[in-house]
């Protein structure tokens, strides 16, 4: 608000004491209006960033609580097992070999404790990378209408939802010129992450497809729309086809009810799913690898 007030006072002073023309005064008013618009947009962008940061912190807090609970269970088992082992040895109830086996079991518990810590660190790195990817995508795409494109992280996976209103005409699988610009911005971010693999999913509402030609139903339409997007990402923007997959979901994965016009519009979408790198996760499970 101080910025607006100062700017306004400056322009009024120039008008009153310098006797500028009406045309210059109106130009100054237009400049103030433009600054106010830019200020409002920047404030909205800042609020969006703060919201994304808060969501990430909340998820990390939940994960930390689960890990703390596991650590308490491990500490309890260590304490009780060590006490029981000593009592059994003192009473000569178990053999030396049995005692050694139990001791190794306790050592395994310690190893699992270390394993949990390494998983915690890996999950934290993954969350940070996902949030960085989301912010890069939002920055590249710019001020798009939230109803047309939505970028989010859900259960550790990055989703990019693009409405069919932006991508295609009704019943068509030909990508619009405006949508190609958006896909180009998404492609540029993905190209900077060469290890990322992703799937393009086509989704429809539950209104039966009534077109003619090679398409039979919503299954066909959803698949053709996904392959249209994949083909553009490969041929026009140079993304590695080995890192992409195309899939059709038809009407069977709605995000909301199809009972209303707005609901059906929300369900008609193309979703880009950044696939988890499962090979790296499984390497964590192998002994001696971190």
CATH homologous superfamily identity of the largest domain: OmpA-like domain
Task: Report, as a whole number of angstroms, the end-to-end distance.
Answer: 52 Å
Distinct helical segment count: 8
**SSE sequence, one letter per element:** HHHEEHHEHEHEH
- What's the CATH class of the largest domain, please? Alpha Beta
> Beta-strand percentage?
5-15%
Strand order of the largest sheet: 1-2-5-3-4
Radius of gyration: 29 Å
Main beta-sheet strand count, sense and barrel state:
5 strands, mixed
Poorly predicted runs are: none
Count of spatially separate domains: 2
Shape descriptor:
extended
CATH architecture descriptor name of the largest domain: 2-Layer Sandwich
Structure in a nutshell:
63% of the residues lie in helices and 12% in strands. The protein is α+β, with helices and mostly antiparallel strands and 290 residues long.
Walkthrough of the structure:
This protein has 290 residues and is α+β, with helices and mostly antiparallel strands. It folds into 2 domains: 131 residues; 139 residues, OmpA-like domain (60s Ribosomal Protein L30, Chain: A, 2-Layer Sandwich). The protein is 63% helix and 12% strand. Strand 3, helix 6 and strand 4 form a beta-alpha-beta unit. The radius of gyration is 29 Å and the shape is extended. The two termini are 52 Å apart.
Q: What's the structural blueprint in terms of helices and strands?
A:
Elements lengths: L1 H17 L3 H69 L5 H46 L7 E6 L2 E7 H4 L9 H15 L5 E7 L14 H18 L8 E7 L10 H7 L1 E7 L2 H8 L5
